[in-house]
Specification:
Elements (H helix, E strand, L loop, with lengths): L1 E7 L7 H4 L7 H16 L4 E7 L5 E4 L4 E3 L8 E3 L22 H12 L7 E6 L5 H12 L5 E6 L18 H14 L2 H5 L3 H6 L5 H11 L6 E7 L6 E6 L1
Helix pairs in contact: 4-8
Length: 245
């Protein structure tokens, strides 16, 4: 059963070494993310699953101790998904064996590292950004049923079309989409989150949509309440931080 969730954005710029001189611009966002992760620890879960967008196909699952890197962003920095577990190395037949964490999960691993996470076993799952709503909801239900007390760290961004300098350029629909996503995430409104338009999300390049739909599936019947800890769009991309407990 899902007992807690933290929703965080996943730009590599969240990592100060990647942001470099621009790092202070996201200090408030980082602090809110760490507060949200703290809610997960307080829930004393049996299992933590980190979800993050991973292109068109999805990847994983990734075991605890899986390694990610920010070398693709010009920084020689490695992160590990939760504490290292030498005896839990992936078997050769494991599809995630030898793969580096996708960027979204690497950011999630960085956040867990900043909180010295050691409260429950960790697993990462890359979610295809194009995964259909019904499959997302089903996946969420399966994750929630996988242990007595499950927590989710859900990585993903809102629309990337909030300004002319945004990655997806300006789209007048972006602000309203982000407002509805922020409201649903901030109030733990499972029905509203489930109803987010996947086609519009794709048009607005909202990478978090599929992961949010997985969260909605996991939270059905859990009776969680939510709080929106941060909402901003500093680079024309919607970033939201929320905690469900």
């Amino acid at each position: 059963m899902l007992v807690a969730a933290a929703v965080c954005p996943c730009p590599p710029l969240l990592v100060p070494e990647v942001a470099s001189g621009a790092a202070p611009e996201l200090d408030g966002l980082r602090a809110a993310c760490l507060d949200a992760v703290g809610v997960l620890a307080a829930a004393r879960p049996d299992r933590l699953v980190v979800l993050g967008p991973a292109g068109q196909d999805g990847r994983g699952p990734y075991p605890q101790g899986a390694v990610g890197s920010f070398r693709g962003f010009g920084v020689d920095l490695e992160v590990r998904l939760g504490p290292s577990v030498p005896s839990a190395a992936p078997a050769p037949s494991d599809p995630s064996a030898g793969r580096s964490l996708p960027p979204s999960l690497a950011v999630g691993a960085w956040l867990l590292g900043r909180t010295d996470w050691a409260d429950a076993p960790v697993e990462g799952l890359g979610v295809a950004e194009t995964l259909e709503r019904d499959r997302c909801l089903q996946a969420g239900q399966e994750i929630a049923a996988s242990a007595g007390r499950v927590a989710l760290l859900v990585m993903g961004d809102g629309s990337a079309c909030r300004s002319v300098k945004a990655p997806g350029y300006f789209d007048e629909r972006a602000e309203a989409f982000d407002a509805e996503a922020a409201r649903a995430l901030g109030t733990a409104d499972v029905a509203a989150l489930s109803a987010l338009d996947e086609e519009l999300a794709a048009a607005l390049k909202a990478s978090g949509r599929a992961c949010w739909h997985v969260l909605a599936g996991a939270a059905r019947g859990a009776g969680l309440s939510g709080e929106l800890l941060r909402e901003e769009a500093p680079y024309g991309v919607g970033y939201f931080v929320a905690a469900w407990s």
